[in-house]
Request: fold
Amino acid sequence: MKKTLISGAFVRSKLFWAIVAELLILLVGFILRPDFLSIQLRTLSDGTTVLFGTPVDIFNRASEITIIAMGMTLVIALGGTDISVGALVAVSGAIALKFLRWDVLVYTTPGDYTVQPYYLVILLPLLTCTLMGLFNGVLIGKLKLQPIIATLILMVGGRGIAQIVTNGKQFTTQYTPFKFIGNGSFLGLPLPILITLVVVLTVVLFVRRTSFGMFVESVGINPNASRVSGLRSDTIIIIVYVLTGLLSGISGLIYSSRISSNDSNNAGLGYEMDAILAVVIGGTSMTGGKFSLLGTVVGSLIIRTITTLVLYFGVVSEAIMAFKALIIAVVIVLQSEPVRNAIAKRRSKRIALGGEARA
Reply:
């Protein structure tokens, strides 16, 4: 009986229907083209073996959104939002490429070199994005600005900062260690997948193995009651936005490494919307409170699978947003409380009838 109740609760959960939606999208791809789910192990010219195939590509290209969405989950659990994450991706890439090339008028050839020490190429973008997250957190936690207004400042100004850093130029690089971040592999898996796994596990352990996750949910449900009970809600808010800034910086390094360039105009464009959608599809309520990090991972995979499916079958890229909207609408309807309750009731009736029949 206990097992039935647990499974019934899982069926009614938004996470279950997010998983179902992802499996259905993959099934559609498989029906239309059986090799859509094929995975191969290939040996490259340098002797390394790497997994290839559409499922691997989905996990690989979902990395940037998944990493950002880990922070966005906590932001939304607080009842807030962060629309500056895409701009922070651009800032991260701009700073990294600036330190790799420094001055394209002097170092005119994008060769396999770095002008400044490589540790600065990695650490300074992450530090800058972390400080930008701190800026957002202070505005929201201390000065009590509305999250959408506070983060709008860096959404607008972030790309300007990225342009200032690179003097409005687009730097490119062929520096092997930097290119390895977004294009390398380890143990047969693309490195971005492994980076994402490390980030997800770290955030899960930090949130679920400490009391921090409970604090976030408490502030999200009722910030006033949390403050009265002695919880420093402003500190919790600042920590969450700092973490989101750091994760945006990591995503920016992966993005700029993939294209071996900074692209301040297009880097991270639309990432804030994709991250918010991933969180919502994964079952976290926009009103704050309880959240699901695993659901967010599934949500980001759904978004990337939709994009991959559309591109895989030769649909023009301009139509991607329309397909995304259609499929996401279906997923959200499936996750809605009336639909979940109706399916759960039908399932309970079948179980009851089956029990009576056996009796």
Notes: The mean pLDDT is 85. The two ends are 15 Å apart (CA to CA). The chain has one domain: 51-335.
